[in-house]
Amino acid sequence: MRERLIGARTALINEVHGLMLEYGIVLPTGVAKFRQAVVERLEADKDKLTALSRLMTIPGIGAITATALVAAVGAVGLCKNGR
Description:
Layout: H1 2-22, H2 31-45, H3 51-55, H4 63-73
């Protein structure tokens, strides 16, 4: 049972490594260093969410609705007020 869990963890880490490499992000090998790097990366990038990602955090707003809102509204920062 333990070997299966370790194998699943290793497979997941390898999958994340591959996905991150597609975006040019290199993470260290080794479970402890990998975990630390991922946490640091998430903390550093949490304030850099795109408008689309922020909209998708609202309950009931999915990828399609968020995309439609961003396309319809455009640059919200150009508006003087909420109306």
